[in-house]
Specification:
It is found in: Nucleus, Nucleolus. This protein is mainly alpha-helical. The protein has helices at residues 13-58, 72-85, 94-107, 130-136, 173-190, 199-226, 234-240, 250-268, 279-283, 288-320, 331-351, 358-368, 374-390, 395-410, 417-421, 428-433, 438-441, 449-455, 458-478, 483-507, 514-524, 533-546, 551-566, 577-586, 598-611, 619-633, 638-654, 691-695, 701-711, 724-727, 731-737, 769-780, 791-798; strands at 149-156, 161-167. The chain is elongated.
């Protein structure tokens, strides 16, 4: 016979996949159902267990009656007595009879009337009355006192739940009374009122506590400094004192601990960044010294992190005005703690730019630069400036610049101008000009063996070999960063700075940040890409022409424009005449009082516009500026006058033909027009520098010297020449040297030499003889007193 053929088709892969999915879903559902059912069972068992415990607690254990005590003879006698005592039915009321019948039916199964179809248990047990329930409990006489029982947790067995009890231990009442008396006596002793301290005693107590805390801090700090690797765990003990709870000394101790920890971290922190260990490094076997170093580094990093978190929390508590539950530190004291915390953060920002969590400190400090509190804002700005000045590589500066740029943009350019003024302290310009590592950029070529053999003797070759080996070791030990890396960092930093500046020029032209932006552009203009020059000059000219700028801001615009044109902008074909005209017009608007800081910007502009671009400046323009500057020197402070006269001296040397201003004769046609704002067309060649005659009688000796020097034609030799300390300094340096910021004479006025007189005049000897006689005559005359009559004067006034 042939094998029977299977008619079922083999299922496809898709069908198998589909059925497998269904099976998996069913399995998952069954698993979930089983979990739910087991959970329900567990809950049910727990509920039963709790109920059993409650029942065991509520019910009293009922002692069973002894069946031997019950005798049948006595029971028969009782029944006969009850029959005798029972009343006949004729003497009972109908209601009582009905009640007795009902009770008789419900008494028991034997005495019940079976003819009635009423169920035995008409009501459930829980609905039975309390009296009936009480009556059902058998009564027994208690000969011995019942012992108190303590109910314990029940035991669950296969048969069910077994309740557990234990006898309560009996305590002697006399002993209880004695103990109670002793407690009362102790309370009486404790409740004695504590004597209140006077203010003086309280201060002495506080001083003692503070001295103890100071000694403890000093002991811990000195132990850590003496051996940091061994005593690194004491940092944790010292840091725990930041949570000082004694309200008398809490604030002072916390401040001392903050400063102590800051100084400790500055001293014991290594000069490299500590990175976390990899799994492979942790598993390898190492020496004890290396293990000790690793433990020290891990402990240091963790404690440094916790310390920074504590400082951050203090600043946040002050900003949010949060009062702690312990109420140890008041809200007023929070500001003092926050100031100390910010100061410590600033110190760590400047001192440890290479160490871990430096970026976290930057993120904390930058928002505080824009803080409402002026002291905190200035503290943070000064710290950032200090960091910029000392950062040679530029890594830390780049991190700060990124955060500041993002913060300014996030606040929609509504920040303090001081934030952007910190950009002026970047060391980019100096490092671009001066190469610190020139010898490392081009590696030194050492002599080959053939060259040595040709030129040197055997002994010389030996010495040369040792010298080259030493030089190689020194080069490796120096390990200074290459110029390429520095330039890369500086380029990235400058890009962020210029993006911030250009955004403000484009979107916030009326912002108070504009002066800082223009000042920054003036400083870094020589580093701007040539592609932006044309557009930038158009923007600057538009700002000047708008009239919305103050004269200081417009001076910054002029300074920026000429910095651009004096550097790479030489290749551009741009006529800056409008900027010359604007500066010429602005000169008479300068402040002549104590706030004459704008004169320094003018001196810098004149140096860039006239001295450095001497080939593009005409003689008429130079004459007009010299004349206007001499006029300006008459009504400004002495240090400004010295700077202006020093600029005129340089201009007279740069343009020799300007000495015609020292002559009275006029050159060419026309009359000088001092009120005209165009320097090319004011006919300055037809005037003279008469202002120098007035300046020769100035009270300041240096101004007098400069005026006499210029009147003599500014010679470099002879009696009218200046001393080297004046002639070798620039105009801006002289302005700073003879500053009048303190409103005192600079240089101070020389004290006149007092001549000793032989005779000391006293009293009348100071007066003239005629005046002395007249005074004596008036004093010798007898004074006559006339009665005063006010009525006549009153009448005349009324008329």
């Amino acid at each position: 016979m042939k094998a029977r053929r299977n008619k079922k088709q083999i299922p496809s892969f898709r069908k198998l996949l589909k059925t497998s999915k269904v099976k998996l879903e069913n399995k998952l559902k069954n698993k979930q159902f089983k979990q739910q059912s087991t959970l329900k069972k567990y809950r049910k068992e727990q509920r039963k267990l709790r109920q059993a415990v409650k029942d065991a607690v509520s019910k009293k254990p009922i002692p069973l009656e002894d069946p031997k005590e019950k005798r049948p003879g006595k029971r028969i006698e009782r029944e006969e007595e009850e029959e005798e005592e029972a009343l006949p039915l004729d003497m009972m009321d109908e209601d009582d009879l009905q009640l007795m019948r009902e009770l008789g039916q419900r008494a028991s199964f034997l005495t019940r009337d079976l003819s009635s179809s009423e169920p035995v248990h008409a009501k459930k047990r829980k609905y039975e009355r309390v009296i009936d329930k009480y009556e059902k409990i058998p009564r027994t006489l208690q000969t011995a006192p019942e012992k108190e029982m303590i109910h314990l947790l029940p035991i669950k067995d296969k048969s069910g739940i077994i309740p557990q009890t234990r006898e309560k231990p009996v305590i002697d009442n006399n002993q209880d009374e004695e103990d109670q008396e002793e407690v009362e006596l102790e309370e009486e002793i404790v409740e004695d009122p504590i004597r209140e301290l006077t203010l003086e005693e309280h201060l002495i107590e506080r001083r003692k506590k503070l001295q103890e805390k100071k000694m403890h801090i000093a002991t811990l700090a000195s132990a850590i400094l003496s051996d940091p690797e061994t005593n690194i765990k004491k940092l944790k003990e010292l840091r725990s004192m930041l949570m000082e709870q004694d309200p008398d000394v809490a604030v002072t101790v916390r401040k001392l601990v903050i400063v102590s920890l800051m100084e400790l971290f500055k001293d014991i922190t290594p000069s490299y960044k500590i990175r976390p260990l990899t799994e492979a490094e942790k598993s390898t076997k190492i020496r004890k010294e290396t293990q000790k170093l690793r433990e020290f580094e891990e402990g240091l990093v963790s404690q440094y992190k916790f310390y920074l978190e504590n400082l951050e929390q203090m600043v946040k508590d002050w900003k949010q005005r949060k009062l702690k539950k312990s109420n140890v530190v008041s809200l007023k004291a929070y500001k003092g703690l926050a100031e100390v915390a910010v100061k410590s953060l600033c110190e760590l920002l400047v001192s440890l730019p290479h160490f871990n969590f430096h970026n976290n400190i930057i993120v904390l400090i930058v928002p505080l630069m824009n803080d409402v509190s002026k002291s905190i804002s200035e503290m943070c700005c000064e710290a950032v400036k200090k960091l910029f000045k000392q950062d040679k590589l530029g890594q830390a500066s780049l991190g700060v610049i990124k955060v500041i740029s993002g913060f300014v943009k996030g606040r929609n350019y509504e920040v303090r101008p001081e934030m952007l003024k910190t950009f002026l302290c970047l060391r980019i310009k100096e490092l671009e000009v001066k190469k610190d590592t020139e010898d490392i950029n081009k590696p030194k070529k050492f002599m080959t063996f053939k060259e040595k053999r040709k030129t040197l003797s055997r002994m010389q070759r030996k010495w040369k070999k040792a010298e080259e080996k030493l030089e190689r070791e020194l080069l490796e030990a120096e390990a200074s960063e290459s110029t390429e890396r520095k330039l890369k960092l500086h380029t990235e930093t400058l890009n962020i700075v210029f993006v911030t500046y250009f955004r403000i020029l484009k979107k916030a032209q009326r912002s108070p940040l504009l002066p800082a932006v223009l000042e920054g552009l003036a400083k870094f203009a020589h580093l701007i890409n040539v592609e932006f020059f044309d557009d930038l000059l158009v923007v600057l000219h538009t700002l000047i022409e708008s009239g919305d700028l103050s004269y200081r801001e417009s001076l910054h615009c002029v300074q920026t424009a000429f910095h651009i044109l004096s550097g790479q902008g030489d290749v551009l074909n741009i006529d800056p005449m409008k900027f010359y005209t604007h500066l010429y017009k602005t000169l008479f608007k300068l402040h002549a009082g104590a706030t004459n800081e704008d004169v320094e910007i003018v001196l810098q502009c004149l140096d860039v516009m006239l001295t450095k671009r001497r080939k593009q400046v005409s003689q008429q323009r130079a004459l007009a500026f010299i004349k206007r500057l001499c006029t300006l020197a008459l009504h400004v402070l002495p240090n400004s006058s010295i700077g202006i006269l020093a600029t005129n001296r340089i201009l007279m040397h740069t343009f020799p033909k300007t000495d015609l201003l020292l002559d009275n004769e006029s050159q060419g046609s026309g009359v000088f027009l001092p009120e005209l704002d165009e320097p090319e067309y004011c006919n300055a060649q037809n005037t003279a520098l008469w202002e120098l005659h007035a300046l020769q009688r100035h009270y300041h000796p240096i101004v007098r010297r400069f005026a006499a020097h210029l009147m003599a034609g500014a010679p470099s030799e002879g009696s009218a020449a200046l001393k080297p300390e004046l002639s070798r300094r620039s105009a801006a340096e002289l302005f700073e040297t003879y500053s009048m910021a303190a409103m005192t004479f600079n240089p101070p006025v020389e004290s006149s030499s007092s001549k000793r007189k032989n005779e000391v005049l006293q009293g009348d000897s100071f007066l003239n003889e005629d005046l002395n006689q007249l005074i004596k005559r008036h004093c010798s005359e007898a004074a006559t007193h006339f009665p005063l009559d006010f009525t006549k004067y009153l009448k005349t006034s009324l008329r």
